[in-house]
């Protein structure tokens, strides 16, 4: 039944995007903090580390997702034991999303008023206190907004992953809507992807407004 396949595709897409985005969130924020604090004039100034991490982030952020997904096939097989299915898609999705989100979070952290940091230093706050109690709280609205953009981008990327057998909504639309062409199924899949992106955008958008 095509409806059952469509429902399974929705669950698969939600799973691969959910797991990947959670890892990107947990890894991307520390990466952004390191990029900001290790920069020249930062509270943990370390130019060599900053340049190395910046080069790593720029490298993976600039590679188109489809090329990255194919290039990571051996690594994906090593990590999850397969190059097919939802969990195989999680690996390239995570590696693509993490540096993307890290750069967005970095911009938000850099926009924090430097006067607040200087005031905290003048009060004798330890450096990790400044990160935890000044930088992150002040940058939180921008970080949440950036995470929303990352989620929507990941939903688009999950469609590309589905096109090569990773499962998800696009995989089902290809099997039932494209070959042979069935415009009704294609429209339903497109609507489902848009609805998922809109749901994330609406929910996190409300969170941003509450934080402000």
UniProtKB/TrEMBL annotation:
CC terms in the record's Gene Ontology section: plasma membrane
InterPro entries in the record: AA_ABC_Transporter_Permease (IPR051322), MetI-like (IPR000515), MetI-like_sf (IPR035906)
Start and end residues of each ABC transmembrane type-1 domain: 10-212
Signal peptide: none
Main location: membrane
Cited SUPFAM superfamilies: MetI-like (SSF161098)
Membrane topology: Multi-pass membrane protein
Keyword Cell membrane: yes
Transmembrane segments: 14-36, 48-72, 84-102, 185-204
Keywords: Cell membrane, Membrane, Transmembrane, Transmembrane helix, Transport
CDD domains attached to this UniProt entry: TM_PBP2
Cellular localisation: Cell membrane
One matching Pfam family: BPD_transp_1
GO terms classed as biological process: D-methionine transmembrane transport
Family, per entry: Belongs to the binding-protein-dependent transport system permease family.
PANTHER family from the UniProt entry: ABC TRANSPORTER PERMEASE (PTHR30450), D-METHIONINE TRANSPORT SYSTEM PERMEASE PROTEIN METI-RELATED (PTHR30450:SF1)
Entry protein name: D-methionine transport system permease protein MetI
Natural source organism: Pseudomonas fluorescens
Gene this chain is encoded by: metI
């Amino acid at each position: 039944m095509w409806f059952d396949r469509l429902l399974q595709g929705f669950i698969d897409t939600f799973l691969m995007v959910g797991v990947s985005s959670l890892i990107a969130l947990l890894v991307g924020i520390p990466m952004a903090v390191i990029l900001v604090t290790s920069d020249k004039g930062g509270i943990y100034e370390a130019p060599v580390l900053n340049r190395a991490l910046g080069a790593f982030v720029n490298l993976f952020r600039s590679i188109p997702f489809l090329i990255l997904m194919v290039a990571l096939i051996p690594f994906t097989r090593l990590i999850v034991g397969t190059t097919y299915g939802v969990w195989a898609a999680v690996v390239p999705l995570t590696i693509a999303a993490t540096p993307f989100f890290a750069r967005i979070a970095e911009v938000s952290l850099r926009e924090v008023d430097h006067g607040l940091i200087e005031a905290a230093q003048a009060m004798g706050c330890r450096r990790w206190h400044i990160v935890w109690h000044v930088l992150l709280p002040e940058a939180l609205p921008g970080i949440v907004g950036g995470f929303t953009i990352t989620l929507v981008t990941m939903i688009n990327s999950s469609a590309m992953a589905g096109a090569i057998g990773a499962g998800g909504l696009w995989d089902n639309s290809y099997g039932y809507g494209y070959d042979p062409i069935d415009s009704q199924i294609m429209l339903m899949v497109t609507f489902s992807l848009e609805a998922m992106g809109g749901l994330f955008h609406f929910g996190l958008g409300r969170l941003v407004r509450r934080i402000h």
